[in-house]
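Q&A log
Question type: sequence-to-structure
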Amino acid sequence: MIEAPTTVARLLCDGQDVARRISDYIGESLDPQDTACGSFESDDGQWQIALHFRHPPDEAMVRDLIALAGGSLIYLARRPLFAWHDRGIGRLDARVVFNGLQDGLFALARSVTRLIDTGSLQRQVFFLLAAALVLGVAPWLGRGTPLAGSREGLPLDAVSLLAASTLI
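Response status: OK
Response body:
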């Protein structure tokens, strides 16, 4: 992962002073807990930068490698993907797709409305009360939900019961 900047630094560094400055910058910018910047090694006047990683590959690095491999595969398959796009998806008009989805949503809303609204007020009131009860009671059925909280409920007193019964 750090090979590319190191290679660029080696290519750009002709003099001893420039190599020292770049390696100092790389050594300071990396986390000293994770990396150890090796000393300057000179072979016949050529300065080399040696970076050694001390930490094992972790979950984030594996995810990055998988993403890099997937991106490389997509990049290698770009010509067939571009041809497929030009043959099919490229010809689609976004307005037609949007209008089709909107018409489907309206048809679904009409069918649900026909299910509820049959001309009977009792049926509409039943669906309204059933929905209110389900939506009102559901959050308290599971523990640890944000609405119920993590604390235990307070004991009921007569005033609270009277107020709740008048609301119902």
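Response note: The first helix runs from residue 3 to 12.
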